[in-house]
Write a structure and sequence with these properties.
Layout: E1 2-12, E2 19-24, E3 30-35, E4 39-44, E5 52-56, E6 63-67, E7 72-77, E8 81-86, E9 91-97, E10 103-109, E11 112-117, E12 121-126, E13 131-137, E14 143-149, E15 154-159, E16 163-168, E17 174-179, E18 185-190, E19 196-201, E20 205-210, E21 216-222, E22 228-233, E23 239-244, E24 249-253, E25 258-263, H1 265-268, E26 275-280, E27 287-291, E28 296-305
Antiparallel strand pairs: 1-28, 2-3, 3-4, 4-5, 6-7, 7-8, 8-9, 10-11, 11-12, 12-13, 14-15, 15-16, 16-17, 18-19, 19-20, 20-21, 22-23, 23-24, 24-25, 26-27, 27-28
Length: about 300
């Protein structure tokens, strides 16, 4: 049994609007944030107090993705498209106009990107030349979240029509679809072994689906009071965190799907408004959280073994 100790290390400020997204880099200490103010900011956990603005875009940034093989940032610019940023030189190396809707999520595998948009479209893009390879639209409601399963060759997408749809990675042919929740599906994440798909929804429920068993439901937990916005696994894959519109972050045992800790304002001086994104870094296992309160919190999560 683990005794989870939580402490706040830093509260990072500078964004002028809600912070919606956090992404890592090749350097464990460096990460990036994107917000409603259109700013892309680089932070260094080794010296966290001051961020560096990488880009300033006119519209909100809900989605951003770090593409490791090219060491670039793919930024979803709402009501426009994607921008490719050379973050080290603070320059734009490419852009692609995609949509007049919001861009809610971006994922990649190898050279290819997938972009989920507010008009229900999922777009597959070849990253090397920014060519659109496939466009699929199976709902008029927003495509909110993307998860890639390279072992099964599948891309799972959660929608605001309450459905999860799973596509063949190469052809974008629809393989599975089911009504997964009673409200919008805001976040999807495959377990590290790629055997199960976790989903979090506006209905506040966390569900697990058997990816190798035609996505039959394997578990369900009423995890939060309000919408679950995002999920992230720890480096050792033994734990994961959820964050919510109820202003809390929760720490879970991944194998047992058991709640271990609640991080909120009353207990740990947490966020005062919706927590939108979490990122469990490889830098001293520090956990990051981004909120509508315009701040990014840096947490130390310590799992101490209790004597039997």
């Amino acid at each position: 049994m683990s005794n989870v100790k939580v402490s706040t290390l830093h509260s990072l400020t500078g964004h002028r609007d809600c912070v919606y997204t956090l992404v890592p880099s090749f350097d464990d200490s460096i990460f990036f944030s994107g917000a409603g103010d259109g700013m892309v900011v680089m932070w260094n956990l080794a010296d966290p107090e001051t961020g560096a603005v990488i880009a300033q875009l006119p519209n909100s940034i809900y989605a951003m993705h770090y593409h490791r093989s090219s060491n670039t940032l793919v930024v979803g610019h709402n009501y426009d498209g994607i921008h490719i940023l050379d973050w080290q030189n603070k320059t734009e190396t490419g852009s692609l106009q995609l949509t007049k809707a919001a861009i809610f999520d971006i994922a990649s595998l190898g050279e290819n990107f997938w972009v989920a948009t507010g008009d229900g479209t999922v777009i597959k893009i070849q990253g090397s030349n920014l060519n659109i390879l496939q466009t699929v639209q199976h709902s008029s409601k927003s495509a909110r979240t993307i998860a890639v399963n390279e072992k099964l060759g599948e891309v799972a997408v959660g929608y605001s029509d309450n459905f999860i749809r799973v596509f063949d990675m190469d052809t974008m042919t629809l393989k599975h679809e089911w009504e997964a929740h009673a409200n919008s599906v805001f976040t999807l994440l495959y377990t590290p072994d790629k055997k199960f798909l976790l989903s979090g929804s506006r209905d506040a429920r966390l569900k697990m689906w058997d990816a190798s068993g035609n996505y039959r439901q394997a578990a369900e937990v009423v995890a939060h009071m309000f919408a679950i916005n995002h999920l992230a696994f720890s480096r050792d894959n033994k734990h994961f965190v959820t964050c919510s519109m109820d202003k809390s972050i929760k720490v879970w045992d991944a194998e047992a799907l058991k709640l271990l800790k609640v991080i909120d304002r009353s207990r740990h001086a947490g966020h005062g408004t919706s927590v939108n994104k979490v990122l469990w870094t490889n830098y001293n296992d520090q956990l990051l959280s981004a909120s509508d309160d315009r701040t990014i919190s840096v947490w130390d999560i310590n799992f101490e073994k209790q004597p039997v």
